[in-house]
Structures are given as C-alpha cells and as structure tokens.
Write a structure and sequence with these properties.
By secondary structure, the chain is an all-alpha fold. It has one domain. Helix 1 packs across helix 4 and helix 3 runs antiparallel to helix 4. The longest helix is centred in the N-terminal third of the chain and has 26 residues.
Length: 132
Amino acid sequence: MTVARAIAIPTLGLLGVGAVAGGAVLIADPSGRMMSMPHSLLDHSPFASFLVPGIILLLSNGVLPLLILIAAIRRSRGWGWWVTFQGCVLVGWISVEVWMLRLVVWPHYLYWGIGLLLIVCGLAATREKRSG
C-alpha cells in the first residue's frame, strides 16, 4: 500500500462517518438544538434552518467520501483524482462556512488541514500511478 493511499483511506473514513452523523443530526433537528448550535449562526446565510446545510453536509462530506473510500480500497481507476476532488470539496465547504458564519474556530483549521491532506494524497496517488 502506498503512503498516500494509507493516509487517504482512514482520513476518508473518519470524514465520511463524522459528516454522515453530523448531517443526520441536523436533518433530524433543523433547529440545531441537538448540536447546541444557536439559530443566530444562520444570520448571514441564505438558510432559515439547518436542514439544507445538513443535507449538503451529509451528501458532500459524508456519502461522497465514503464512496471515494470504496474506490480507494478497490484501487478503482482514477481513485486518486477522486481523493483530490474530495479534498477540494472539503476546503470549499469550510471556506463557505467561515464566510457565512463570519467566524473562524479551531475545527475550521483542522478541516482545512484535512482537506489539504486529501488533496496532497490524491495528487501523490495520481503521480505514483503515472510513474509506476
């Protein structure tokens, strides 16, 4: 197993499971109370509740990375590009979230880092494929 793949697989798994759980809670309780999220967090967003952000979170950072995880485990054609894509999705998600919240907290830095790690792993995997 390459280093890039060895890092990408657990990272995708943790990201996917965490986002499925978080998205499911936001969908189940769009008020945000179950996650102790005040409604004021939505003040600078186009959303009236946490329902739509929960659905987007569930799909883009939950289901998608789990599908990419399967591709990486199976070594499906182009899996490295998909890992890179997921990293970009995550960096984009966090950037838009920070912009809408007008607030940066430590988990944002963590998830930006995870997104960048996925981008690097994905690009390294595509490079290994070409040179190997």
